[in-house]
Amino acid sequence: MKYTQAAMLNSFETRYSTIKRDSALLAGYKLDRQAIAALDQAWDELKSLGALSTVKKIEQRGVRSKLEDVIYTLHPTQEFVAEQKAANRRQNNAKGDISSAMQMQNGVELPNKKYPVRATRRGK
User: Fold this and answer.
1) What are 76-93's pLDDT values in tens digits?
2) Among 20, 58, 81, 119, which is least packed by CB within 10 angstroms?
3) Which of 33, 39, 34, 38 is nearest to 15 (CA)?
4) Does the model's pTM come out above 0.85?
5) Residues 6+ apart with CB under 8 A from 80
6) What is the pLDDT, as a whole number, of residue 92?
């Protein structure tokens, strides 16, 4: 699960069924409610570590109140948002460094970023 677009106003929504499908960590539970309880504990641990500020849980129930799925809405803390922005910035800088190095290796001249060339209008 990736949460790279973290922002205070950006919540992240995920479902129990998606986590169960994509992760083998919940496969060891016989009952879904046991796996959901374990997932709730994991969210609480992330809250105690300072990554999440709030977790909203909406249960979807079917016939005879059978629990079919759970929708989790996660809200990050300011510290987590700052860490994600810094990580994204480092990743983008690294990508730029790699592409610059590859262009230099291939003999492609890089434009001077300090003084960009501007288009001028002719006829004046």
Assistant:
1) 999 988 888 888 888 888
2) 119
3) 39
4) no
5) 6, 50, 51, 52
6) 85
| Cα 110 off chain centre by | 32
Phi, psi angles (nearest 5°) of residue 55: -130, 120
Residue type, 56: K
What are the C-alpha distances in Å from 7 to residues 45, 80, 123? 20, 9, 47
Using alpha carbons, select from 10, 2, 13, 7 the residue that is nearest to residue 83.
Answer: 7
- How many Å apart are CA 59 and CA 66, to the nearest integer? 10
In the predicted structure, residue 97 carries a pLDDT above the cut 60:
yes
Number of neighbours of residue 81 by Cβ within 10 angstroms: 19
Overall average pLDDT of the 51-65 stretch:
95
